[in-house]
Amino acid sequence: MRALEPGDPARVGDYRLLARIGAGGMGTVYLGRSRGGRPVAVKLIDREYVGERGYRDRFRREVAAARRVGGAYSAALLDADPDAEMPWLVSEFLPAVSLREAVRDFGPLPAAAVWMLAAGVAEALAAIHAAGIAHLDLKPANVLLTLDGPRVIDFGIARAADAGAGTVTNAMPIAGSAGYMSPEQAAGAEAGPASDVFSLGTTLAYASTGVEPYGDGVDYVKRYRIQHGAPELDGVADLPLRVLIANLMARDPAARPTATQLRGYLATVLPTEHRSWLPEPIVTEVQRRALEAENPPVAGVVASSPKLSRRALLFGGGGGVVVGVGALAAWFGLRGANPPPSPSLSPSLSPSSSPSSSPSPSAAPTVTLQFYLTGNTTVTSLTYVVNGQPTTLKNLRLPWRKAITVPKRGVSGTWRLRYSHSGGDVQYHVLLNGFELWLGSTGSITGRYSEDRSEKFDA
User: I need a surface site. Which of 32, 47, 321, 398 has the fewest CB within 10 A?
Assistant: First the structure.
C-alpha cells in the first residue's frame, strides 16, 4: 500500500480515498472509506481507456458478473457507476495477499497449502459457474489469499455461460492471460467453464513451483494454435498433486472435471479439522495489511516493514495432506482422462519522514504505544506494563487492541507484554504512533521506547 499521489482524486462517489493499493491492467485500486467508516477497495478506470470502443460495455459486464457471484468466494461488490466520466466500482476491502505476490515474495507454497488452495478455488469456481458465468482470466494475480480461504477476483472479461452447452464465445479474438488460458481460449475458439478448470491447473502449478507452467508466455498463443505439449510439472514434488494438476490441464475440455466434481472429490480427501491453511509468514503479511488499512500511509512518511524468513515459509505451519495416487487414478478414470506416470522475524527500522513540511510521528504532541493481538483462540490472561504501571485482563477474545498515550515531552520509558492461552495461535503486534515495529508469537516481550522509536531488549 502506498500514499496517494498528487494527481489522485480525494473522493470517488461517496467514498473518501486514503491510499493506493495497487495499479495495473486498466485502472488503479485505492483504499477508501465509506461515509460510515467502512474500509473499501475502490477501482477507478484510467482515463486513457475510457474512450476505447466497447470498454464501457466490458466494464458493465464486469459489474454485472461481480453482482451475480456475490461475496462468499470473491470480494463483494458494494457500489459502482459504469456511466461516470471515470467509471468506478467499490468492493469490500479484503486483507489479503495475491497468490502472485505470495509466491514472488515467499517462494512456492508447501503441498498442504496447495491442496487447500485447490479446494478453495474449486469451490469458488463452482459458485461462479452456478451463477451462469465463466471467469476466463483465472491466474495467480486474480486469486487472493485471505485467512479464511482464497477469493477469486476481477471479472473484467467474464462472460455469461450458455446453460446448455456450457460454453461461451469470446467477443475478442484472444482474451485472457498468456501462460494460464486454456488451449481453446488461446486459439480463439469457444471457451467456458472448462477453460476455468484448465486455468486452475496452471495456477496450482505456479503455486507449487514458482515457475510458469508454459514458460514466460512468449509465443504461447502461437504454440497453442499449432500443438499443445505436455505441461512442465516435474517441479511438483507431491505426486498425487502432480496427477491432479495434469488432469485439470487436459487438452480436451470434455476430459477435465467440472468445478463441482472437483470440489466434491477434494472434500473427500482433505482433512476436516480446522487449521490455519496458510504458512505463517503469509498469515503475518495478511495481518500486517489489515493493520495498515487502519493506519494507511501518508505522503512523505515512510515506515519499513518486518522482513519475513523464507525458511519459515518452507518449514513452518500447516499439517500434511496425504492423497493416494490410486484414488486419483480411479477418480480420473471415471472422467475418461489418463493420469500421467509418475518464522523468523527481524525488526523494522524506525519510521522516517522526508519533506520537513510533511506530518511525522515526532510532530505529534503525544506518543501512542499500541499492543494488538490476533489469533484464533481466547487469551486466558494478559498483562501489559507501561512505565511500571501494570494492567491485567482475563479471557480476552481476539482480536484485541490497546492504545496507551503518553506526553511527548521528555518521553522515554519501558513496556512489557505477557499473555497466556489454552491453545491455538496468537500473534502480538507492537506499534508506535501507528507504525508497526514488532510482531511475533512469544508469550512475553519487553522493550523500551523513545519519541520516535522502540526497541526490544528481552523476549
Answer: 47
Predicted TM-score (pTM) of the model is 0.65
- What is the distance between the alpha carbons of residues 200 and 249, in angstroms, rounded to a whole number? 8
Amino acid occupying residue 197: V
Question: Radius of gyration of the chain from Cα atoms?
Answer: 24
Confidence grade of residue 45 (pLDDT, cut at 50, 70, 90)? confident
Instruction: Look at residues 405, 456, 409, 414 and name the one whose alpha carbon lies nearest to residue 434.
Output: 405
Angle formed at CA 306 by CA 417 and CA 24, multiple of 5 degrees: 135
Element (H, E) at 188: none
Residue 12 gets which letter from DSSP? E
Quick one: cell of 326?
490410486
* Cell numbers given for 29: 485500486
Give the single-character DSSP code of 185.
Answer: H
Q: Are strands 39-45 and 27-33 parallel, antiparallel or unpaired?
A: antiparallel
CATH 2.60.40 holds for 352-458 = yes
Gap between the terminal Cα atoms of the chain: 30
Mean pLDDT comparison of 91-100, 222-231, 267-276, 399-408, highest-scoring range: 91-100
320 or 190: which carries more pLDDT confidence?
190
Q: What are phi and psi of 247, to 5 degrees?
A: -75, -30
As a whole number of angstroms, the distance between CA 346 and CA 79 comes to 40
Question: How high is the pLDDT of residue 132?
Answer: 87
7: left (phi over 0), alpha (psi -120 to 50) or beta: alpha
CATH number of 97-275+324-335: 1.10.510.10
Cell numbers representing residue 196 in the block: 476455468
Q: What span, in angstroms and rounded, lies between the C-alpha atoms of 226 and 209?
A: 26
Q: Which of 96-100, 235-239, 413-417 has the lowest mean pLDDT?
A: 413-417
- Mean pLDDT, all residues of the chain: 75
Assigned CATH class of 2-93: alpha beta
Which residues are tagged catalytic?
A: 137
> How high is the pLDDT of residue 319?
45
Residue matched to cell numbers 495416487: 325
Which residue(s) pair with 19 in the sheet? Answer: 3, 31
- Which residue do the cell numbers 489454552 mark? 422
Contact call for residues 386 and 367 (beta carbons, < 8 A):
no
Boundaries of every domain in the chain: 2-93, 97-275+324-335, 352-458
* Confidence check: pLDDT of 367 > 50: yes
List alpha helices for 131-279, DSSP H: 183-186, 193-209, 220-226, 239-248, 259-269
Q: What is the pLDDT of residues 82-117, one digit of tens each?
A: 889 889 999 999 999 999 999 999 999 999 999 999
Rounded to 5 degrees, what are φ and ψ at 32?
Answer: -135, 175
